[in-house]
Amino acid sequence: MKIIDETSKARVVAFREAVTLLHKTENDELHIIESQDNGNKQRKNASMYDSDDDSSVSSTSTAMSDLTLATETEELYDGEKSLEQCLDSLFEKRGSTREKALSLLIESFANKMQSQFVEKKCITLLNQCHNSIKRGSAKEINLASCVIGLLSLTVGCDDSTAHEILEESILPFTQVLKSGSDSLKISSILDCLAIITFVGGSNLEDTERSMQIMWQFVNPKLGSNVLPSKPTANILTSAISAWTFLLTTMDGFKINSKAWQESIAYFSNLLDKDDRSIRLAAGEALALIFEVGSLEKFLITAKDSSDSSTREGYIHLQGLRGKILNQVRNLSVEAGGKGSAKKDLNSQRNLFREILEYLEEGYGPETIIKIGADVLSTSTWSQLIQVNFLKHFLGGGFVKHMQENAFLHDVFDFKPKKRNLAGSEQSLSSAEKRLFKSPNSALNKARTQSLNKKRMMSQGRNTGHYALSAGDEEV
């Protein structure tokens, strides 16, 4: 009996310990749930500070800074999140969280015109992207600059906000360009600067300012106040492409001839570089210079001048023109070399054949680009360079923007055809699609009426009351 009593006591003690542990676990779980609820309430209260007024930015920043401490360790992106949530996540301290939010914003802006969101939150989003550019990694800077470019394209040039985006971005951009030599970071900033100047530049001075920033990477000089070191081939190619893209918006006859002489001679030297991407970019720049009439302007100005130095310049330009023609001819038939990629070599040959044809016969590059069910045609170097640069920047979103972006419609004088009902349905939101497919929608009511009518006719044929001849039968 003594043994039995001791065993029973041991069981009772073990049972009591288990009950105590269970209560403790339940209390801990309850405490966790309450903490999560409080965090959700904080998040909800913080969102109430965010309004459409610019004055709310400081309040939003304060609220989100407090929220960061509670959510820094949470996994925020286990599914699709709204643009508002992405914007909120840009206030977080963790860089990876901001990078993920920026990636989702890029995907959203590239695949749909987010006009309503931009109208409300444009400046707040712009400020947060600038913060990412100031403090973020090279990857975050790349993503943030892409968002700024997409923001500008969504706003369009009819809104003064596009010019504000340009003006507010110049300072943080130049600071980043001075601070390092990472090719991803610098190339992204140069691409974005080209886009926001293309959209928001309101005068010649705006464009020249951006082109001057780019030119310091194209032709770096000793004592430059922007360029920290000699640019790599990738940076040089990006700078030339961005510079050339902005050149498409300018009238060559309004630009100082001395500056143009420098650019023509420099691009001619770049045609002899070993890197093929540099040669391609320099070739496009020279083709555009010829197209806008700049070289002819210099020749006419120099020929008619009585100044001896200007006459010498005329002779120099004539020789330069002949040199460029020979370079283009040689590059159009280049045999390639060891390790030369066939695709890259073919791209070079095709480009310089088109340039040669233009220089010798005056025919521009004619291209046809399929935009959904529509076709975009180009026949000048200016148009081709603009299309290629925008395709490079927008990536998979190029077709969508060409279909729906009014700014790009004006740039290319492109008028997409009206899509049929099925095509328009694909562009609806999830809620709109549910309404569209609702039994009470006008479309489904019409379908029901048509089916009922056909059903009555079918029944009538069986009884002879609604019999129709073959020619009168409805389909």
From TrEMBL:
<dbReference type="Pfam" id="PF05004">
    <property type="entry name" value="IFRD"/>
</dbReference>
<dbReference type="InterPro" id="IPR007701">
    <property type="entry name" value="Interferon-rel_develop_reg_N"/>
</dbReference>
<dbReference type="Pfam" id="PF04836">
    <property type="entry name" value="IFRD_C"/>
</dbReference>
<dbReference type="InterPro" id="IPR039777">
    <property type="entry name" value="IFRD"/>
</dbReference>
<protein>
    <recommendedName>
        <fullName>Interferon-related developmental regulator 1</fullName>
    </recommendedName>
</protein>
<comment type="similarity">
    <text>Belongs to the IFRD family.</text>
</comment>
<feature type="domain" description="Interferon-related developmental regulator N-terminal">
    <location>
        <begin position="58"/>
        <end position="360"/>
    </location>
</feature>
<feature type="compositionally biased region" description="Polar residues">
    <location>
        <begin position="438"/>
        <end position="451"/>
    </location>
</feature>
<feature type="region of interest" description="Disordered">
    <location>
        <begin position="429"/>
        <end position="475"/>
    </location>
</feature>
<feature type="domain" description="Interferon-related developmental regulator C-terminal">
    <location>
        <begin position="405"/>
        <end position="459"/>
    </location>
</feature>
<dbReference type="InterPro" id="IPR006921">
    <property type="entry name" value="Interferon-rel_develop_reg_C"/>
</dbReference>
<feature type="region of interest" description="Disordered">
    <location>
        <begin position="32"/>
        <end position="64"/>
    </location>
</feature>
<dbReference type="InterPro" id="IPR016024">
    <property type="entry name" value="ARM-type_fold"/>
</dbReference>
